[in-house]
Amino acid sequence: MPALHIRRSIGPAEYPALVAIWRSAVDATHDFLSDADRDQIHAKLASDYFPAVILSVAERDGRPVGFSGVLDGALEMLFVDAAERGTGVGSALLTHAIAEQGVTRVDVNEQNASAAGFYAHRGFEVVGRSETDEAGRPYPLLHLRLGSL
To answer: How far apart are CA 2 and CA 15, in angstroms?
Structure first.
């Protein structure tokens, strides 16, 4: 398998590729989202969510295969193309976010058991819970913090 390279996003020119990765990842892992909520989030990615964070892109052979977004020590988003799941892309993005961007916190949808397990396996511990997501939708969030801080 070709080597993975993580770099800073080049900005709006690559947002369509990142939106496609997001859609692939969400379709594979977020079966709890209603179609309306999925579409609402999708519509705000490039206009609202991507510009609000520092985006890092994982690529193989010059092709984006995953990305993360960080703001003030919190991992706000981490998505991997469904075809790349299990190949180390998510782990590489998380390692980069912790080592290079000082990430110590992440919120994860409680219904996304695979994501919760991913973060737990990498040293994150549940420190709180919210009944709704940040937009008030009925998707409980687990608030995680990197252990041994």
So the answer is: 23
Q: What is the pTM of this model?
A: 0.94
From 3.50.50.60, 3.60.15.10, 2.60.40.1270, 3.40.630.30, which CATH number describes the 4-146 domain? 3.40.630.30
Q: What are the structural domain ranges in the chain?
A: 4-146
Closest CA to 17 of 57, 54, 49: 57
Q: What does the pLDDT profile of the chain (149 residues) look like in tens digits?
A: 789 999 999 999 999 999 999 999 999 888 888 999 999 999 999 999 999 999 999 999 999 999 999 999 999 999 999 999 999 999 999 999 999 999 999 999 999 999 999 999 999 999 999 999 988 999 999 999 998 65
Amino acid at 27: D
